[in-house]
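Sat 14:20. Reprocessing the chain from the morning session after the first attempt stalled halfway. Input below, unchanged.
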Amino acid sequence: MKQLDYDVVVIGGGPAGMAAALKAKEKGATVAVIERNDELGGILNQCIHSGFGLSYFKQELTGPEYAELFINQVAAAGIDIFLKTMVIDLNPEHQVKAMNEDGMLVLAAGAIVLAMGCRERTRGAIKIPGSRPAGVLTAGLAQRYVNIENRKPGERIVILGSGDIGLIMARRLTLEGMQVLGVYELMPYANGLYRNIKNCLDDFDIPLHLSTTVTNIIGHPHLEAIEVARVDENLAVIEATREVIACDTLLLSIGLIPENELSQKSGVSLNPRTNGPLVNETLETDQPGIFACGNVLHVHDLVDNVTLEAEQAGEAAADYALQQKAAATVKATRLADNKVAITISPGENVGYTVPAKLSVPSQKATRILFRVRQPMDQAAVVIQAGTKILYQSKTRAFKPSVMEAVVLKPEEINGLNGIEKTITVSVREVK
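Finished this time. Tokens:
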């Protein structure tokens, strides 16, 4: 068994992993990236549509173009890359056990960055009744079939869920000559970005049916039809609205789940709302020296935001590892720095916050990310500690599909002095 030592080991070679590795290398750390696929880039390689990089690179790129810019930087930086390598174990002592065609290897790290991304929810996650025919697949798998393997998933297609992947595939399949009969969404609002609804559905006259879901799957051995029905405000099926639609393919675009089985093996605590790790303002988990970023932490709307978050995690991981190397007492120093941990809690109309912890006093501004639970036309962000308001935004519209960000300045944070143990982030409607 081969053992290798690095300052920072990054698990995952997608956009988050590459950005974190580059920033750690820039800080002077020795860095390795472990990727289970045979190439870097992750999901970007099959996202051939444009719309990437507008914020980070100030230009419009396809997914492969965005990935290539980082792949080239990683190659030039001298970062060790382990492709076709599967991590099978990760422990709190920062030992990463992995397997590839050369056998077992162990990477010992000063710090670890978790960047494993996410996976799609399947039919089993929402328990659609009916038979189990061929022709029911996730939108991401259909995207791979069409864009990578040059295969058609079907001819008459229904999409369940209005997530961005499903919306983008509605357009893609239409352009390839398939008939998309409609997109059906359980909630009374769409879950994808507005630009995708406009560009992918409206521009191609593909109907979006809100407050409607699939109630039965019909056919064997291949899908023949689905049954749909409208739901009321309590999401209960309205019986009189049941309708059977003949089709040969059902795509599921019903959400993403962070890949955190490895995180749990290392003892990292997860947020029950996001299924991602609970982290502090440096994106460090509750296991010292283990950091998380990208879709393994929480599902993002834009890859540009993934990159910025990953750079923060990579820099913090490098700082941690290099401090550990420089002084054996650094852990004691970290525990004795007179800082107080404050909990950041989602309040009214907020689903979750990242980070979930904040150290006081703080030397830097802290960026708090969150999503609202429902659309609101007139609302304001209010962040408070007890009765003390730390931040209040102007009134504007909010949508669950858009990840929100608020920056707290050090002076706004340090005024707490550890008296209050919880900061609450709320979005309140203004009437």
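The mean pLDDT is 94.
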